[in-house]
## 1
Amino acid sequence: MIDNFQKTRICIVLLTIGLILSACGGSEATATPPPVITTEVAAATEPPVASAPAFTIIGAVNRDVTQAAQSPSLAIDNANSLLVVWAENSSGGVRQIFASKLAGEAFQPLGASANIHTNVLADFPIITLAGENRAVPWIAWSEPSPGFGNTPQVFASRFNADTGLWQQAGQDRGGGEASLNIATDRAGTRPFIFGGSTELGTPPVPWVAWEEVSDINPSSRQIFVARGEKDETAIGGFRWVTVGQAKPDGEQTLNVDRFRISSYPTGVFAETANSVPWVTWWESGRDRPSRIFTARGVADPASPGGFKWINVPPCPPEDETKCALNINPLNEAKDASMAAGSTVAGESTVPWIAWPEIGQNGKWQVFVSRLDVSTRNSFIQVGGSLNVDPNHDTRNAIIVFVGNVPYVTWLEDDGTGKFEVQLRHLASDPQTGTWALDTPANGFNLDASLSNFNLAAVATADTLFLAWGEGDPASFASQMVIGAFHP
């Protein structure tokens, strides 16, 4: 339920994007698409350019504008169309996973709810493309399963264009549920799905990384990775194969320290023909600073799934600081994201990683590193802090490539506790590391008075798409807004 103040907020937003809904006193919602709102952008702190970039608010995607939306994820399909998936509250205290596709200037639903159980709180959806010509959308998410004692399970589904529905995929773990969890009695959350192929000329398949409660320490979490293989005997025609060498206890965790809490895995395919899987994550706990780690998948027939994970940089025994990506491994770092790209057209891509880290002043700063293209066994910092104001905290840093130009977007405190979307791009060679500010003078928000929660980004060769929530979804009917930035 929402109070009158919240309803007034929603009405303002709806009128702004040109929708008429009963929540504002009308009768029925119309199908009129929202108008395109374009703002010419000129970052005040940067030198003027010949033609100013443009930012366009496409609109909000909530299925029900009286309910809070959160946890967005974006992808571009093989027709260069934008896909978005998110979690949205429903009446009765439950939450659904929804997806939509941008058709012209309006979003059209892509199937119904993807939930396995529609009466639970599902969350952490993520979307990618796989299959021939990357034509098949895949999503992964987490939801508690009544069949497994309400323990959160990781699920993945592919979109069936013939039925217009999401079809779960994987081995039947009981009750017709294709959970990816290593153990269904241990909570699995925050999956990250990414499509790729390790064999040149073969269609990409879905890979999923996720965090799961450890079997050796219930207070810690491990990172696991599995890839999809075609199997007509499995649900949805695919089975999941866990990837990576087994540790002494027999589990294929990527953790540097299996007694720490691992969080927020992300993955990409990079290097030669984008055929090498990479995963990054961060670990916290045990009275040590939280640290960013990454690992490359290396072909190994002796390892389950045919690959083993090698930390980059290498991790010597008993000194994880040597393989931590933190600018200062004695400072806290978190929420790393990764993209595959190159600043030189025609060159092989390498992983680039962006994350917030505590700076010398005690505030969270956004930093970027990339794989050293000469050694391919270490990472090099690209520039300094990206913060608009280094004295303000940041969170949710995301890096993407628009063509051969890396862009980083994040949320930054404006000094009052309200977080705003910020955006920069690399305006020099990586060695110089100059990041130019692209944030419009009046910001990205549809409603400038609201703080931003959650953030997602994806790009084509010439357009950067952003998704963010306006208003705290824990207490407000936050709208999931989508915008396009044209450099």
## 2
Amino acid sequence: MILGVGLDICQISRMAEAIRHPRFLERVFSEEERAYLESKGGTAAQSAAGMYAAKEAFLKARGTGIDSLGLDRIEVLHTPGGQPCYRLSGAYGELSVTAHLSISHDGGVAAAVCILEGEPGQGKE
């Protein structure tokens, strides 16, 4: 059963400025995500904007918005083929949900959609 759908967009130029600040990077992105962004070189801001939008989309799909559980606990990783996927940890990791993710970039923005699947009552613990 679909529990929720979330959509978010993020301006890439805004993210380019934000990722220049180590505190922002540490608060929002896990160590593995930061290493991925570092590997992206000149496209790091585009990737970071997509990943940030994906985190927001997940929270919107849950129906909670930003909470105190930590954005770095909603990791956006990539399969060997490059497909984005979530890895949830902390309290998010205890949720009994499957989270589907799609990210796109165009015209200076990144957009992400998250679809949460699970049993009724799950996803908002």
## 3
Amino acid sequence: MTYHMLIAEDELEEFQLVLYLLKQLNIDSLFQISHASNGKQALSILEDTPIDLLLTDIEMPFANGLQIASCVRQKNPDLPIIFFSCYDNFSYVKTALSIHACNYLLKPLDPMEFQKTMLHVIDLLHAAEANKKSLESRSIAIKNHYLYLMLNRMPFPDLSSLEAESDFSFVNHYSRVLLIHFEEPFFDCDAMTSNKFIESLHKSFQIPFDFLNLDASQSILLLNDSVEHTTSYLFDTCQKVQARIYELYHTNCYIAISSLLSSNYFLADAYEDMSSLVETRFFSSDQYVFIKETPQNYSSDKPDFYSELLADIEADIDSNNMKKLTYDITCLNRSFEQCKSISHIYVRFTYSKLIQILYKNQPRAELMKDIEQIFYCSSIYEIEKIVTVAMSKLQTKDSGKIENTKHAIHLVKQYISAHYNEEEITLKELADVVYLNASYLSTLFKAETGSGINKYIKTVRMEKAKQMLRQTNMKISEIGAAVGFHNNSYFIKSFHEYYGETPEKMRQK
């Protein structure tokens, strides 16, 4: 990682001294350095260029170092700042402390003090970078988890605690859904291969999209609506992608393209349609790309349609068929959304009957509260939210929990596969990925896989090490570091305990 440092110093000799000290400390390669010879130039650079570290003199033409630092603090409260000055002035030092500078160094610079300060700053930069990556990883995990629940029409957990750090409006900016389906497991390959696969998709489509891996044989692309793309362009591109995948991986895949998403045609609808389209491959000999021209129409002209649907919903609850229940309630929602001629009163009345069914075994006080809310809702979408909450309270069989559990374990395995090269993967870190208690995740993982998490991590690392021994000419110490062992002796010992022989002996074979 290279960091961008700005040195604001009007005396050339002092600037060159800083460069010399950085080189002497052997840390100059960590920084891309910009130089400002006066305060005005420094402010211009800070306005146009992202800076990771500011070293500034106090007394300079046009604007002094304290003024520069105050401007920086308004835009970047956490930027590390180091002052150096010829003046041992208490008011200067006091101001430096007030803006949380890392240090105030007197000229001529003391090499030992400069070294101590720079090493401290480098630790701060590394910690900030690690925290940034952790936040990005967490943000992606939250986003993918949210999409997974939405695609599968699963009840949402309470997301209020995440609203500050995550913007869930991104789902409103998708225009189409593409489903990529393999007959055999494909997406359980190593992280490097997965990243190359996603990169190749970006090159092929040349359209902004989000990628979500659903399981070992299915992934979806969620196309961004910021770029216009015709149906024929998508169809031709998907055919080229399918052919390219076969050329590279010697396996066939099937790609389904949804119709355009709209206020009446949601992600979950599109995903269900894509899955149904892929199923039609049974009746096709050489077709690998499928397209949905029009969305499913849920409405019905039958006068007793809604009564029959409510009866089906009650039967779903009695039989604990959560999947069918979700589908039937979705049909009810879509039917009302698409049929504009039905009176609001009838819609509210029907939803009130639905709530009564959903709360059949729940306290009456909650039932009456939700029914009252329904008659105060200003749109059908507000009513649907009330229904979604009521559904989440239902006592059903563990089918939904099992699906959630398997997905959580799948995400943990994916995270381990992507981070096995790091020296330590903590249980808390893994628990944060899937928003579970660490102790509960440990119990859950063992029950689901038959292996403890630490044992699983070690297995992944050992298998990767074995693969590298057989397929590369890397040194054994390099292989150990590549799979998370930065102590070579400990790596060799662990490898011997796992395989019954040293890495060297295995390589000789």
